[in-house]
Structure formats: C-alpha cells, structure tokens
Amino acid sequence: MARSQLLSLLASLVLLLGWCPLPAWADFALPPLPYASEALEPVIDATTMSIHHDRHHGAYVANLNAQIAANPGLTELSLEALQGQIADFPIAVRNNGGGHWNHSQFWTVMGPVGQGGKPSTQLLKAINASFGSLESLQTQFNKTAAGHFGSGWAWLIRKPDGTLAITSTANQDNPLMNLEGIERGTPLLGLDVWEHAYYLKYQNRRPDYIAAWWDLVNWNEVNRRFAAV
Known about the structure:
Shape: globular
Strand order of the largest sheet: 2-1-3
Number of helices: 9
Radius of gyration: 21 Å
C-alpha cells in the first residue's frame, strides 16, 4: 500500500472513530487501590491484596461492562444509583454491579495499621445509642461476620430512621439494593467474608481474619460516610 493510501486510510479511521460514542466500557472503571498492595500487612498480605483487587474486582468491572450492550439503561446510572435499582436488571448485573460497588467501598474503609483514626464524637454517640459501646459493636459485628454461611459481606449500616444496625448479605448483595429480604440502609463499613479475601493467610480461620481486620479500619472514611447521610 502506498504511503498516501495508508495516510488516507488512517485519516478515515480517525474520522470514523470520532463519530462513534465512547465505548460502553468507559462507564465503569476499576479504581486503583488507595495504598500500596503491601500497605495492609501484616493483617492482609500483599499477594492477597493484588489478586483480590486486580483479578477479582477487575473481573466484576469487566463483567458488568459486558452487560451494557444488553442493558443500555446502565449507561444512565452511576454505580451507586444502580444498587438502588438492581431488581430491575438481570442477575449478572446484580452480581457484578454489586461486586464492583462492594469492593470499591471495601478498599476505602481500610488503611494501614495505625492510620485509620477513631470514630468521631457524633459516630461514637450513635454507636453507643445503638449498641452500648464500640466494643459491643465489634463483638456483634464479629459474630455476624463469622456466622454468615458461605460467601458474602458483613455490614454496619445507618438505617432510614438514623439508628445503626449490623447485617449481612449473601454473595455480592448489599444494603443499598432494592431486593426482598435485605435490610436496607446506608453502608458505613463493609467486610468481605468471601474466602478469596483471606484464605492465603488465614485458611479456614475466618474469625481470626475478622478480629485482625479491625486494626485496618479507616474510621476517617467511616466518619465521612456517617456525616454524609
């Protein structure tokens, strides 16, 4: 092919691409970790973090984007708005949309040991009113997370009436979803109890993972979420 023909072809492709809308997969993107993969050691090892974020979370994002062609309404919704309308979509959107949202919050509510701050005065007041004390909250949360059968999440939520509650959801469901059987509320703190979140280090010792995880809780982010409701 002559150089002039090649340039003409390239120009045509540029024009053609310029007329096309942005690809659907531009709508949902994998957020980077807000810290290095090794930053949560020794509680969560770097290998687990890399696999969990890059492969597992990455797969939820890719699979959600793959649903856009068959569900064009996804392009009109933010990720969070999608959760509240999830019942209107197929199960693949529910699983992958939930997986994307759940993991996106999970990375932000954790931080390196010693850098997470502490509950704000306002949050601690709400915790005391709902659970009696922070220690009681942690005990109840640990029991719920350890006792959840199979894969899923444990949550601290703020209910519509302003009180706090602890709940759990199966698979990649979350308390924002408009689904029967889910206790609705605004998630303040969510813990992944799927085995891929902890198995390399803790094997079948889920309670040990849960107990150690409190050293990573980023109360600064939890405070922000609480204040924003």
